Here is the input.
Amino acid sequence: MRYALLLAAATLGLSLSAAATQPDGVAESGDTRRRDAAEAVFAQVRSDPLAPTIAPRGHDVTIVVFSDYQCGYCRRFNPTLDALMAEDRKLRVVYRDWPILGGGSGPAARAAIAASFQGRHLPFHRALLAQPGRIDAAKIRAAADAAGVDWKRLERDQVRRKADIDALLARTNGHARTLGLSGTPGLLVGSQIIPGMVDLPTLRRAVARARAPR
Here is the structure.
């Protein structure tokens, strides 16, 4: 698995080969600057006051998930992430709704972000990913009902907070492109990028690497 540092270094116009091959502990000053620049990018991806986030007390690893509610792979991956969250109580998860598949992707993402204003993003997120086939207005409403979302408030919040929601989606798109992602799902686990769906053992190993002392 390749580290996100490599992709971030490439997009920042830095030396990809140096970032890839220099072992930890023997980096020269230029390599240290490259690592610092990449970590600054990762910090922006992990930290956004509007991005829906699950942050248990004492968390020590952050997973950022880029997903689209019409993505079949995202639907298949979500139970894997949920299983890891259930067994590992020290994971912080940041949900980056990234609607890139057209159609109902945008409305679903906006509704999911708006649901966070009433503390219902995660159940709504799960309910949306449980909807079969292409997402449309009826399926968004069905997911909201299943997740216990106040529909009238959701509609109001999407109007009232439209500028905030649009800005968050734009930031997420920019971060995904900076990390070199071209589709969903995409993950940032610590400083590792996983461009696609993985199984539970692979995800566990990525988290273990993120926890390992450097």
